[in-house]
Design a protein that fits this description.
- There is one protein chain.
- It is elongated and about 55 Å long.
- Helices cover 74% and strands 0% of the residues.
- The longest helix has 27 residues, at 17-43.
- It has one domain (3-63).
- The protein is mostly helical.
- It contains 3 helices and no strands.
């Protein structure tokens, strides 16, 4: 475990139980989501390559626009 994660757990341990459970649920969802995403990408490299090709084609054809995080 990294120092930063240990510090976060230490700080979270001082919070009320209900809030600790909420943080734990969110963290577990993130970890599970990352694992599912990794599995999806690993199991379908052809699909990812096809999507990347389509995105590049759209970019070159001028069918995309630059957005920041606040614009999504």
């Amino acid at each position: 475990m990294t120092r930063l994660l240990a510090k976060a757990f230490e700080e979270a341990s001082r919070l009320p139980d209900a809030l600790q459970d909420e943080i734990a649920e969110r963290l577990l969802e993130d970890v599970e989501g990352d694992a599912q995403w990794d599995e999806t990408l690993a199991s379908s490299p052809q699909a990812l390559e096809k999507l990347a090709g389509k995105a590049l084609e759209d970019f070159r054809a001028g069918r995309t626009k630059k957005l920041g995080f606040d614009d999504l």
